[in-house]
């Protein structure tokens, strides 16, 4: 006799996820918007439980959340018709940010921290470093960062951008191992399943080529979001270039979310183009360097080459040029034929600051400069050797 209560087999094959330490979870407007306007906790609760499960297990999660405009639309509905003037949409985003943060805070005992970014913040190296330092410190303190675009001032981003790609950039920013994208369908299909009943689920993508991109359909069923499946694949490509895996799944399914809490995915797994370490080292090796250099003594050169150490002020002898904090610069040491470039990396301090710190102890940085960006001149994660 057939058991009518037996669950229907999922369209996507359940698969185990590789271990991860830090992840970014992107949540779109279609999962947070209420049918009558404003925000709804209906799907947010399951997503928050997924976060709490992994944070409780000692992992770290950054949420990239849409929904501010939808929240503002409920406060001033008459100013919120689709296609409203950009200034009106910016005002709605400003009104809705507080509502969005209140929605997330209600689910967590730990503090929730709002971080508003624009793409300009992430293109500019100095602002990029400041954003990374802030997010890392929030995670260290045990807070839950909730990131959103600063739509109140970002005209182009609000009109043309999407939080899928922002989530990929944030994942690279915080050196995440995984990017989880919660959507309103089960994952990537060979065609739009809402229009083609013969669409086949794609459980795994090993290479994001033109054929895979051609499978992408339009926006989610709710029409609330700014990005469809194609933007999610573009985000996966950005994350993959940094060595980060991406997982697409249905954020409306409690069963799917409970499985994710046990590192079991029912959705689409998109593999990165290369390992995270290889991607990072490739960028460090090939990114343009600024004129000038940091000169180090023989002891510091050996520590960099043989121990994989960070560069500390005590090993620095001089700074050449006028580079700024966040610039990519060469690290050189005296050799038989003159100065030899032994490494390159992202400087945490300007050339002017380094000249004042050369040869001093890290504990003296704040007393010398009046501020402190950390004990390292160049952190080992931001450094690549040029010699064997």
Automatic annotation (TrEMBL):
InterPro entries: AceGlu_kinase-like_sf, Asp/Glu/Uridylate_kinase, Glu/AcGlu_kinase, Glu_5kinase, Glu_5kinase/COase_Synthase, Glutamate_5-kinase_CS, PUA, PUA-like_sf. Keywords: Amino-acid biosynthesis, ATP-binding, Cytoplasm, Kinase, Nucleotide-binding, Proline biosynthesis, Transferase. Residues 292-378 form the PUA domain. Gene3D superfamilies: Acetylglutamate kinase-like, PUA domain. CDD domains: PUA_G5K (cd21157). GO terms for cellular component: cytosol. ATP binds at residues 26, 183-184, 226-232. It comes from the Bacteria. The keyword Transferase applies. The keyword Amino-acid biosynthesis applies. It is an enzyme of class 2 (transferase). Its EC number is 2.7.2.11. It catalyses: L-glutamate + ATP = L-glutamyl 5-phosphate + ADP. GO terms for molecular function: ATP binding; glutamate 5-kinase activity; RNA binding. SUPFAM superfamilies: Carbamate kinase-like, PUA domain-like. HAMAP family: ProB. Catalyzes the transfer of a phosphate group to glutamate to form L-glutamate 5-phosphate. Belongs to the glutamate 5-kinase family. This is Glutamate 5-kinase. It comes from Stenotrophomonas panacihumi. The gene is proB.
């Amino acid at each position: 006799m057939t058991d009518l209560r037996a669950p229907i087999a999922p369209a996507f094959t359940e698969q185990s996820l590789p271990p991860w330490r830090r992840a970014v979870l992107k949540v779109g407007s279609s999962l947070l918007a209420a049918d009558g306007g404003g925000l709804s906790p209906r799907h947010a609760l399951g997503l928050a439980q997924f976060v709490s499960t992994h944070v409780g297990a000692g992992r770290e999660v950054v949420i990239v959340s849409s929904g501010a405009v939808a929240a503002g639309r409920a406060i001033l509905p008459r100013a919120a018709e689709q296609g409203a003037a950009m200034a009106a949409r910016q005002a709605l985003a400003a009104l809705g940010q507080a509502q969005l943060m209140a929605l997330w805070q209600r689910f967590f005992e730990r503090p929730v921290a709002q971080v508003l970014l624009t793409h300009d913040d992430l293109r500019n190296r100095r602002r990029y470093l400041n954003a990374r330092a802030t997010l890392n410190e929030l995670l260290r303190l045990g807070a839950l960062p909730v990131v959103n675009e600063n739509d109140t001032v970002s005209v182009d981003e609000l009109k043309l951008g999407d939080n899928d790609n922002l989530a990929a950039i944030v994942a690279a920013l915080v050196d995440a191992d995984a990017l989880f994208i919660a959507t309103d369908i089960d994952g990537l299909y060979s065609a739009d399943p809402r229009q083609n009943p013969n669409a086949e689920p794609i459980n795994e993508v090993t290479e994001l080529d033109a054929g895979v991109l051609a499978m992408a359909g339009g926006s989610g069923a709710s029409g609330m979001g700014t990005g469809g499946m194609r933007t999610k694949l573009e985000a996966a490509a950005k994350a993959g270039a940094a060595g980060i895996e991406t997982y697409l799944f249905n954020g409306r399914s409690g069963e799917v979310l409970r499985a994710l809490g046990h590192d079991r995915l029912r959705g689409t797994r998109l593999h990165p183009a290369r390992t995270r370490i290889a991607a990072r080292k490739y960028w460090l090796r090939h990114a343009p360097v600024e004129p000038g250099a940091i000169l180090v003594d023989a002891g510091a050169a050996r520590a960099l080459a043989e121990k994989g150490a960070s560069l500390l002020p005590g090993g620095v002898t001089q700074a050449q040029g006028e580079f700024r904090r966040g610039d990519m610069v060469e690290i050189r040491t005296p050799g038989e034929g003159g100065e030899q470039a032994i490494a390159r990396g992202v400087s945490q301090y300007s050339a002017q600051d380094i000249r004042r710190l050369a040869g001093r102890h890290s504990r003296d940085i704040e007393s010398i400069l009046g501020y402190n960006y950390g004990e390292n001149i160049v952190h080992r994660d931001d450094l690549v050797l040029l010699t064997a």
